[in-house]
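Proteins fold reproducibly. Next comes a concrete instance:

***
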Amino acid sequence: MVCVAVRALLVLLAGGGYLASGITHPNFISRKVASSFNSPVSSCTLRSVRLAMPTIRACAALCHLETNCKLYCLKDDVCTLSSALVNIRYPGGDPNDPIYTGVLTYDRCYSTTWSFSDVTQYIQSVDSSSIFDPDFPAVDAVNGFYCYGPLFYCFIGNLADPRGWWTADLGAPRRVSTVRVWTRADNHLHPMFNYVDISLGNSSDYNNPVFDTFPAEPPTSGMIVTFTASPPVTGQYLKLKSEGGPHPIAICHIEILE
C-alpha cells in the first residue's frame, strides 16, 4: 500500500509540473553520460518539466514514471525526459558537426539503458566493407547515441555492396552471450539487414566461427535483432555479414553483452 501511495503521489505531482525530491525506485539504475548533444536529440524528447525542487533524483523519479524514458537531463530547474539511447561511448555534442548544427547543453544527464556488461566500451576500432556516404560511417553503429526512428547516426553500406560486412575489434578476448542490433526504422522500403551472420573469435582476419544468425528481414519500421550464444563465446574480433542481399547492410545501434 505504501508503494502504491508513493507512486500515486509522484503521478499527481508530476502532472502538475512539480515533483518532490529524494524519491527513487530501488530497481531504477542509471549512469551519468555526456550532457551535450547535437540537434537530433530534440526529436527524441518526450517532455520537459519544471521542478519545484530541482534535484537529479527528482528528475530520475519522473523518468521512471514516463513510458519509454531512457535518458533524463537536468538544466537549472527543468528536467528533460528523452527516448534517446545514450551510453558512455558518446563524446557529447560537436559544435563543428557539418550536418547536425547546434548543440543542446544540460547540467547533467543520465542514461537508464546502459549496461555494465556492454563490452562496446572496449572497442578499439571498427571497419566495414563499404559506406554509402561519409555521413554514415562504420563508427556510427557504436558512437553511443541513437534516436529510434529517424536515420540519425546510422552506419549504411554502399548500395553496390549487397553482401557487406561490419567488424569490431574488442581490444582483447571478451566473453559475449548476446548481441543486440537496432535496424533502421525510418520506414525505408528496404530495411537493409537481410539474413545476417555474426561471427566471433580470436582470428584477426575475422574468419571466425558463427556466433548466431538472423535468417530473415526486419520490418521497415525497424526492430531490435537479438543474437545469442549458449554457452557464451569468448573472442576479440566480431563481424556482422549480410548473406541475403540484394541490399546493403545498415546498423543504427549495437550492444555487445557479456
